[in-house]
Amino acid sequence: MLRLDQLSRRRAGRPAVQNLSLSLSRGQVLGLLGVNGAGKSTTLSMIAGALRPDRGSIQLNGADFLEQPELARRLIGWLPERAPLWPELTVGEHLDAHGQLRGMRGAALKQARAAIIERLELQPLVRRLAGVLSQGQRQRLGLACALLHRPALLVLDEPGNALDPVQVAALRTLIREQAAAGTSVILSTHLLAEVTAVCDRVAILHEGTLRHDGPVRSDDHAALERTFFEIAMNERKAQAA
Amino acid sequence: MTILAVTRLELRRLFVRPLAWVLGALTLAELAWRFVLLLGSFLAGQIKLAALPAGPGYTDLVGVPLLSSMLTGGFLPFGLAELALIIVPLLTMSAIAGERSNGTLPLLFASGLPASRIVLGKYLAVLVWLLLWLALTLAMPLSLTHAIHLDWGKLAAAALGMALMLAALAAVGVACSAFASHPAIAAAASMMLVLALWIVNLGAQIAGVDNGVINWLAMSTHLETLLRGLVASSDLLWFVLLIVLALALAIRRLATERERN
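Structure tokens for the assembled complex are given below, as produced in the milestone run.
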């Protein structure tokens, strides 16, 4: 489904991501872990097509994504860290605009819009302006926009931000549902519990490089915690020395 | 068709914000007042004018002066052309700079749209608004066609000139918006640029220099010909060149931003 090969990108004069190679198969949920500044958001922005890598390649369903950026329109749904919205448009207008930008029209758009409104319980908010939504509601709307066109790859950058515990549980269920339906998911998070709860695999980034890539066992939270802290703390010790 | 999706999105944003409505309402009210005064003046002098063998008619004294006072010597300060120098930068300032400051530009990039479609889609939306504005203004002199003889050719040439001017100003505004980090900076830069384009030959004229190149650079030179009813391909080409240049710069800027972020 997705293959990253030697992906590199500099930001603000320093390497944000270096020689990152990863692959993701259909229906798999990959957790992307790392401390702040590890390169998670840069990686996700490149996968989503919002940022071009300096080097390396991204393959989506066997096609070169960098050569055919329009693939993003059909195949990828992206929820950035803070869901960017047009404050003067309503929730319904956001869904229409996102659908149209992704090439959806007429009955297909109407049907998809109705389905996602129902699934994410957005009905009471449909006529509300995005500018007056609470942080959690904004996040739900961002998620709805990302899912509207039924993408094959869902890229979520800290989707649990600002959600209450009930909404976090609902989000986990949604991610598992999407994976069961064949959608591949990349989930960036700071929360180790989030990874053990929903992910099949975890990749740990540190200072822009991949330090760990392996399966996740939902009953072994301690092992993941150990691996994560070893990578993060050893690096700090090494820097201090 | 994704250009149309961007256009629809931009139009919706334009029409739900109060700015476009306020600007539209205030300028149309000013233009209606100007129309009434021009019409009053025309009616007062109608008997004298009728005695002249080839005297100016309704189109020369009401229709065209409504569009611009600076070039046709009307007695009120603002015609449509002068208002456009202020209105268009305000309408275009948020086109791309607004997306940038709002954080929504990456969403457009991530939808796989090339920079050219984003820029053209937004440009078309502003153009639709401006052409509607022009049409409503033209409806004023046209509302009396059943009672007054109208020089259709002259008014059509003037309307074409105004449409080209609005299209050129919109292109410059969108380009400024593509380069600016904030809408207010885009508006200020765009206003300065269009004013410079409008009066670039003024200094030379005041100094008594009739320089062909400086006159050619000025937008007013090319609009004036069209307002007089003369459609010359060199004038049309000047407007088309400006539109293409401004949009090409905007597209290049956005494409570079996508590359470098």
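DSSP finds eight helices and ten strands in chain A. Helices of chain A lie at 40-48, 71-75, 91-101, 106-119, 135-147, 165-180, 192-198, 221-240. Further analysis is deferred to the final report.
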